[in-house]
Design brief:
It comes from Lutimaribacter degradans. This protein is an all-alpha fold. It has helices at about 5-20, 20-35, 45-55, 60-70, 75-110. The model has no long low-confidence stretch (mean pLDDT about 95).
Length: about 110
């Protein structure tokens, strides 16, 4: 499956969830906004942290969403690779497998085949 398709499918599933439990998802959305806008770290740094966690917990939809956010924030392939290296160090073999998926996602979303 292409990463753009993963993003589309994820968004479609989330829309259904948002309609089903709007109070909960509104609350989560408010928390997400507060975390991304507040604090001392910039948005891109926070997204790097989120990508590392996404690789570590092996969440493909999370990888797609956070790589997309990083692409929009101007992250470079080298920056992504550095975060993935740290993710591998922290997560071992399974993180290595998902780090390769995150890099593939970045390449597809930036068309750097």
């Amino acid at each position: 499956m292409a990463w753009t398709e993963t993003l589309d499918n994820t968004r479609n599933r989330l829309r259904v969830l948002y309609k089903t439990i709007p109070d909960v998802t509104r609350g989560f959305g408010a928390m997400s906004k507060a975390v991304k806008e507040g604090g001392v770290l910039d948005f891109k740094t926070k997204e790097f942290v989120a990508l590392g966690i996404a690789v570590g917990i092996r969440c493909e939809s999370c990888i797609a969403l956070h790589v997309e956010a990083l692409v929009k924030a101007g992250a470079t392939r080298d920056e992504i690779a550095d975060v993935l290296g740290m993710s591998i160090q922290m997560g071992g073999g399974p993180a290595t497998m998902y780090a390769s998926k995150a890099l593939e996602c970045f390449d597809e979303l930036t068309e750097q085949a």
